[in-house]
Amino acid sequence: MGGRALIGLTETRRYAKDEFLVLCNKIEEKLRKETKRYELVPWIRSKESFGDLDILAVSTAGIDNRKIIEKVFAPKALIHNGGVFSFNVEELQVDLICVKEEDFETALAYFSHNDAGNLLGRVAKDRWDLKLGHQGLSYPVRINDNTHLIKEVPISKNPERIWEFCGYNFENFKKGFETLHEMFWYICGSEFFNRESYDYAALNHKNRTRNRKRENYRKFLEFLEENKDKLKAAPQRTEEEKKELMFKRCTQYFPEAKVKEITKELTEKAKAHQEARTKILEAVKDLNLSQKEVGEAMSKYRKDCGTNEEFSDKTLKLTNSEIKERFKKVNIVDKEY
Fold first, then answer.
1. Are residues 204 and 293 in the same domain?
2. CA 243, CA 127: separation in Å to the nearest integer?
3. Which candidate in 93, 106, 239, 305 could, as Cys together with 52 as Cys, close a disulfide (CB 3.0–4.6 Å)?
């Protein structure tokens, strides 16, 4: 994905569209015999040269994708990074993206049309603090002023509903785009679009570093600058305001996900867990244990309590003296108390 994974491993080059399409047909003929389900990831139609080919495939339990690639294509170079196998077919880099069956449709939409999914995902993030990726739409539940991630609550893996949720017509998206500018205008077409959310300053360090390397992201920023008078900037909202807007819209579009209820439950449990840990550390601070010994002792104490919920419930009901005695009872620490 990007056409640079095999540099230094084998000779690759960009292919003109005509020869690229011929090679695509040859690759597909071989894949049909070996792969349960696959799709060539759609690209912008006016693109005239290609440095790589992205193929989405279902990852089947018990199937060794590396061995299949070696058997079918006999590449000179093959690397595996996450769920992506990059290898050469003739002089073209091919990226085989392996996903679970349940993620296939969302992944296909997300990876289609040269970074459209990445750009569209900024709408979900900016408006509602949601995460849109190849596994679908989810809500990262955080505490401690959004610094600590508890869990991602899954919302939907249905691309048509997700696109509609974000203010887009999915049927138009599936038809594809003739040019990058046509795709850019599509991204800007949602009522929830905010041009300022794409500025590097608005991104976290990880996304800023990643998107600086993306040629199409840089082109999109240039497009936004050229058309800034035609595009709106959304009003600034606090994290709490985003959360309330998100709960309201998720209840409307995805009531089955129960995002508000699950978020409340996860947050309460996480805060109770933190309070229990804080209470223990306060109760045992005069036992003169090192940080490592406290960590090991805490682990034994938690295991003795049972589940995480039982750890929180039992600890918060005890006095500091009772916690200290229980702490000492379940631990063997070579210290003089």
1. no
2. 9
3. 93
Strand pairing class (136-143; 131-133):
antiparallel
Kindly list the strands in the beta sheet with 84-89, ordered across the sheet, starting from the edge strand earlier in the chain: 38-40, 52-58, 92-99, 84-89, 78-81
Q: Given CA atoms 96, 97, 102, 108 in this order, what sign does their dihedral have? A: negative
Tally of structural domains, the chain:
3
The residue assigned the tokens 């938690």 is: 302
20: its two tokens: 């690229």
pLDDT of 149-186, one tens digit each? 899 999 999 999 999 999 999 999 999 999 999 999 99
* Confidence at residue 166, expressed as pLDDT on a 0 to 100 scale: 97
Exposure pattern of 192-211 as b/e (b: 16+ CB <10 Å)? bbbbebbeeeebeeebeeeb
Question: pTM of the predicted model, to two decimals?
Answer: 0.88
Q: Over the stretch 111-162, which tens digit does the pLDDT of each residue have?
A: 999 899 999 999 999 999 999 999 999 999 998 877 888 999 999 999 999 9
Tell me if 129 sits within 8 A of 90, measured CB to CB: no
Q: Cα separation of 87 and 109, whole Å?
A: 23
Looking at the fold, whether 128 and 236 belong to one and the same domain comes out as: yes
Among candidate residues 117, 75, 115, 108, the one with its CA nearest the CA of residue 94? 75
E strand spans, the chain: 15-16, 38-40, 49-50, 52-58, 78-81, 84-89, 92-99, 131-133, 136-143, 148-156
Chosen domain end from 257, 273, 290: 257
Structure tokens at 193: 């679009």
Could you tell me the two tokens for 71? Answer: 């058997």
| Tokens linked to 145 | 């002023």
Full domain range(s) for residue 43 = 15-99
> Looking at 99, 132, 158, which one is the last position of a domain?
99
Is the domain of 217 the same as that of 158? yes
Contact (CB, 8 A) for 66 and 105: no
Do 9 and 86 meet the contact criterion of CB atoms below 8 Å apart?
A: no
Residue 38 to residue 241: CA distance in whole angstroms: 41
